[in-house]
Amino acid sequence: MLVFEQSRTGRVNAAQSAKKDNMVNVIPDNLKRKTRPLLPEISEMQAVRHYTRLSQKNFSIDTHFYPLGSCTMKYNPRACNQLSMLPGLLNRHPATPDSSSQGFLACMYDLQEILKDVTGMYEVSLAPMAGAQGEFAGVAMIRAYHDAQNGGKGDPARTEILVPDAAHGTNPATATMCNFKVKEIPTNSDGDVDIDALKAAVGPQTAGIMLTNPSTLGVFERKIKEIAGIVHDAGGLLYYDGANLNAILGKVKPGDMGFDVIHMNLHKTFSTPHGGGGPGAGPVGVSKRLEPYLPVPMVVENGGEYHVVTEKSRPQSIGRLSAFMGNTGILLRAYIYARMLGSEGMQRVAEYATLNANYMLAVLQKSGFEIAYPNRRATHEFIVTLKKQAKDLGVNTMDFAKRLLDYGFHAPTTYFPLLVPECLLIEPTETETKQELDDFMQAMVAIQKEAESEPEIVKSAPHTLPVRRLDDVKAAKELDLTYKGE
Amino acid sequence: MSEIPQDLRYTKTHEWIMKNDEGTLTVGITDHAQGLLGDLVFIEAPEEGTTFQEGDDSAVVESVKAASDVYAPVDGEVTASNEALEDTPEIINNDPFGDGWIYKIKPEDSGAFDALMDAEAYKELIESADE
Amino acid sequence: MPFIPHTEEEVKSMLEVIGVESIEDLFDEIPENLRSEGLTKVPEGLTEMEIGRIMRARADQDTYRLCFAGGGAYEHHVPAAVWEITTRGEFYSAYTPYQAEASQGTLQLLYEYQTMMASLTAMDVSNASLYDGASALAEAVLMAVRANRKSKSKRVLMPRTVNPAYRKVAYNIVHNQGIVLEELDYDVTSGTIDINSLPDEPGDFTALVIPQPNYFGSLEEVDALTDWAHQHKALVIAVVNPMSLAMLKPPGEWGNDSDITGADITCGEGQPLGIPLSSGGPYFGFMCCRQVYVRQMPGRIIGRTVDLDGKPGFSLTLQAREQHIRRSKATSNICTNQGLLVTAATIYMAIVGPYGLENTAAQSHNNTQLLMSELDKLNGVQRIFNSANFHEAVFKFDLPLSDVIRSLAAQGIVAGVRLEDDYPELGNCLMVCATETKSEDDIKGFAKTLATTLTRLQAAACPVQPKMA
């Protein structure tokens, strides 16, 4: 039932709407609202019960194994939430003078320093509010850099960004937002970038390349140094999509691989909550030559005091990307997480995420599932392809995914990357127990048996959730985006 | 095997083109293309009077899981747009070569039609892609 | 090992299954020369208790007593239940509802949110949110350029009464695409866009941005502005404070032109709806539009549909616009919404209801009027704009404002937002705001403290010459 259907006209939640008499109202009549908005008129308890019940219809990390590839659904420590919501931090207005904000600014500065170390980059800005905005900042910096060449006259020939075909869709979308043309680079059969195709593609028109390493195929790009050389020699810059940083945290620094700019997804690697689809945080790190262009605000330390710096003192900055300082509440959570892990703990993240992924790969392979890149070591994730099941049994990846829900597991990422047909991208993360992984794999085997013996059960799954499969065609064709009363 | 009418011309990007008596060309997407896209939910057809160069994005066909551009097969000006698609995009799924046409275009070069791929060549193209 | 559950025995058996000797062997594809020599600036790990001690000390360092700052972030009361429910693990630790059947909670909540926002703004449809108010305006500009096929200019009129941070963000995000944001100046007496100064022949432009209330808290003549833009075939982008819409005419009803009324796109900052100040984020941006433009709207959109049994259910819809399908031709590169914040806002609106929202807005309006009359009584402080306002007002100080702000901060009061950095002509101008959270005593106390502070600073600035004996 929708919250609106529980509403009764005239029910007032008095505890939340104390009213004063004789209030002044100077708003001219022609600017006043004349109709009451359709907000529910329900009691506080009704609201609490309604939304508690809705929450129970969700799968989440706190309730289910959630091996969604490329999303790093690891445990979000509760301490990060509680400590970031201490009153002094939670109630700080963004206009509070720096002098009254030293505690908060110290956390931001420390986080910048930690992320510099982790990425091996020269400087970091925490400004971008999500991975996609970090990408935007990164590509905008590449543009700003080329525009500043030749004594400020720019290098207008550099109109193209190279993107491997395995990349996240955000990469080409971001390049377009920065007015670059996108050229796709193919991947070879081992999952590495096709070096010959890359050599053929680079030239004076190349502004840069956007790479994810480990790639979305769940393998480490072994020739990254060679790629960096090819692109740099052509005058282009290297952009690192930090989506898969969890796999190499503390083990390899993107700065050492030759990248000029990187964004991190703190809601992945640094375990801030995914919140049903946000908020994220996408700090960017850069090499020395891109440092002047970093987005603002940033925090600097001067004689033991912390200050916020803006466009004013950083005139070459690509500017601000949010009204204030980005998603600071998320940055605080990442900071707390980073401090709890410490340097040793960060390396362990990569180690155990990799251990879990390779263990699952080995077991699933022995159970008869086809691995997309069987000759490669998995990173923190790997791909199973169900193309045989789709062809021989008529049971496709979507069917497997939906049936997994019945077994009490959130499905892995499906149909991404686009390169591998009928794929499941599985990322267990380091915080799952062996027992949980074993249970998941037993479910996969059980579903395989069902697909062979009674495929209808799999094809019509899920059977045990609040709803069965939804009519997406109807949803898109007969748009119903708001409740209008029955 | 999807249908490929003999009297039409085709492009590598799965548009079909029909020659009309009044010198215009009708453009749609092939049976093969609609099959790949699945149930269509929205079509964005060009407005009358729009001019295109060959290869320009001229329309968008959208299913639940995909959106695909329809490229202009020739240089020219749009003379008519299929308004029925606005409310019933599924016509393309049901009758891609008939009622599911998308727009009519007056080519700049009247010989442009003959330069396009014929049915045999298109058939080979999709067969080789299937392998 | 923090947050890693493996026992030694488990690790051993897992390595055996994989067929390697050690975890280190799993990194054998990474070239040796890329292996990091370790982290030098990351300190040793801490226990929860230890980091708790550090964080509490830092948080305690920053507390203040009273805040009269607004400028796009407003201190409102947030009912206790809002964040109790929002931080339930099932909301907090879920992701984007890709598997609709396992995400009906989040999806239904988002559908309810879309309904509430559409109704509050009187627009046809709403998306499931964007990052914040500033980036929502940037996205609205991009959307207007896509949606307005009658205009070829990529020229958007941007009044200087729009939040300056929003204007900067919009510029930073859209300028690479050749979109021009052309400033419109404001009338110095009213602090609003001067309707009489708008040209009769403005030339082709794509959209006009109209803030309500504007950055100074003043109310714009939204009807006349909307009609003017529509007469010139431009779209209207409304930037509004959702709290104010409990009192103010919603954008969907702006304009008196019977042919076409209402803003075409409405966006803004959702923070006033149950989101804590939190140093400026995370907040959420909202965006609503006319039905005809829905396919040009960026961000996630939730639709109601039915399942195989005909039972109602909710799913992500119109996904073909988005980056994961449309790649370089997507409406935006945005992937997420601000799910958790929207969860809080939806619960907030459900709990306070239409009356609670109206009373909160009305009290904020009332308190600001009281604050204004208190400050009007002070020497060396003048209100500079004479137009009606919602819950913010601008005052010019005779004394150097930075001294005033610093002195009040030392007394535990955040005095307001200084305007000089963004408006050089408004030197020594402070913008203040008194929401419903301020009592009459708070407001009068603030005025009194300010009076004392000014007297003291005055005395320090012009010390009385000691009389010669």
Topology:
The complex is a heterotrimer of chains A (486), B (131) and C (469).
Chain A: H1 44-55, H2 78-84, H3 87-90, H4 102-119, E1 123-125, H5 131-147, E2 160-164, H6 170-177, E3 181-185, H7 195-201, E4 206-212, H8 224-233, E5 237-242, H9 254-257, E6 261-264, H10 266-269, E7 284-286, E8 298-302, E9 305-309, H11 328-366, E10 370-371, E11 382-385, H12 387-393, H13 397-406, E12 413-414, E13 423-426, H14 434-453, H15 455-459, H16 472-477
Parallel strand pairs in A: 2-3, 2-4, 4-5, 5-6
Antiparallel strand pairs in A: 1-7, 6-7, 8-9, 10-11, 11-13, 12-13
Helix pairs in contact in A: 2-11, 4-11, 5-6, 11-14
Chain B: E1 9-10, E2 15-19, E3 25-29, H1 31-37, E4 40-44, E5 51-52, E6 57-63, E7 67-71, E8 76-81, H2 84-87, H3 91-94, E9 103-107, H4 119-130
Antiparallel strand pairs in B: 1-2, 2-3, 3-9, 4-6, 5-8, 6-7, 8-9
Chain C: H1 8-18, H2 48-61, E1 66-67, H3 80-86, H4 89-92, H5 104-121, E2 125-126, H6 133-147, E3 155-159, H7 164-174, E4 180-184, E5 207-212, H8 222-231, E6 235-240, E7 265-269, E8 285-289, E9 301-306, E10 312-317, H9 323-326, H10 339-376, E11 381-383, E12 392-397, H11 401-410, E13 413-414, E14 417-418, E15 429-433, H12 440-461
Parallel strand pairs in C: 1-13, 3-4, 3-5, 5-6, 6-7
Antiparallel strand pairs in C: 2-8, 7-8, 9-10, 11-12, 12-15, 14-15
